[in-house]
Specification:
Layout lengths: L19 E5 L3 H6 L5 H22 L3 E8 L7 H24 L2 E6 L7 H14 L5 E9 L1 H17 L10 H5 L12 E4 L18 E4 L9 H12 L20
Helix pairs in contact: 2-3, 3-4
The protein binds 3-methylbut-3-enyl trihydrogen diphosphate (2 copies) and magnesium ion (MG).
Length: about 260
């Protein structure tokens, strides 16, 4: 039994927790509405929850944490709300980048960059550049992200290679396509958590979630805390992952947090 090992106390990553957790941070608007507050207040409180989640991910020993912070479809929201969300991203990077760096967090951003304002593009590049050598936790921020668009872009990139005579179509397989995704080199998420009670992917990691476990929590994102995170990890540890086979595989030990 993994839980019996004293090595759990050691600072290195414990192998009975998932290596990679994806989080769909949903429900900020409803959290605010239920308190008679404007939606932006929910987003502000959501940012606080994100800070705590990153700290918890480090303490729990995860290798990768991917957070869905703005989808390509979120451009369909009122312009004021989009502006608020862009402002919060800037605030997060300006205020937190130093602390993230000191904590050994490597920041990576996935999603489209071309249609973002230059100041945001510059901040994202700065965050990635400053933290690129860190190894404690990789925080992947899915911003202006869409899973289908990511797969389409990967297909386009392969098609360009075929058209240029650099690639034979018969060589295209799932490994090659995965290498053209924004997440190239990052292991697939073991666990995806969604708050707010909705039970859907909303275009998050469409390709990468093929064999992910899902935990849906009824609470809204601003109420997500260390305890809720631990509950989701405990639920994950009780799951049996089969990957199409007949016996359980992967990390399924009991967790101690
Ligand atoms: C998640 O909360 C944050 C983003 C999508 C940016 P929502 O803003 O979707 O909150 P609800 O789902 O409307 O309550
Ligand atoms: C998904 O939440 C996107 C993020 C959490 C950033 P949405 O609130 O946009 O998803 P839907 O519209 O309810 O599916
Ligand atoms: Mg929502």
């Amino acid at each position: 039994m993994i839980s019996a090992e004293p090595a759990l106390e050691a600072p290195q990553r414990r192998y009975d927790v998932p290596a990679h957790v994806g989080v769909i941070m949903d429900g900020n608007g409803r959290w605010a509405a239920s308190r008679g507050l404007p939606r932006i207040e929910g987003h502000r409180r959501g940012l606080e929850a994100l800070r705590g989640t990153v700290r918890a991910a480090i303490d729990f020993g995860l290798d990768y944490l991917t957070v869905y912070s703005f989808s390509m479809e979120n451009w369909n929201r009122p312009v004021e709300e989009v502006a608020d969300l862009m402002g919060l991203l800037k605030r997060f990077i300006r205020n937190d980048l130093g602390d993230l760096h000191k904590s050994g967090v490597k920041v990576k951003v996935i999603g489209g960059r071309a249609n973002l304002k230059p100041d945001i593009r510059a901040l994202l590049a700065e965050a990635e550049d400053l933290t690129k050598a860190n190894t404690r936790l990789t925080l992947i921020v899915a911003f202006n992200y869409g899973g289908r668009q990511e797969i389409a872009a990967a297909a386009r990139s392969l098609a360009l290679d075929v058209a240029a005579g650099r690639l034979n179509p018969s060589e295209i397989d799932e490994t090659l396509l995965a290498q053209r995704l924004d997440t190239a080199g990052i292991p697939d998420p073991d666990l995806i958590i969604r708050t707010s009670g909705e039970q859907r992917l909303s275009n998050f990691l469409m390709w990468q979630a093929a064999y992910s476990e899902f935990v849906f929590l009824p609470m809204h994102w601003p109420d997500f805390d260390r305890e809720a995170f631990a509950t989701a990890l405990a639920e994950f540890s009780a799951r049996e992952r089969r990957f199409g086979g007949v016996t359980a595989q992967g990390r399924n030990g009991k967790i101690k947090i």
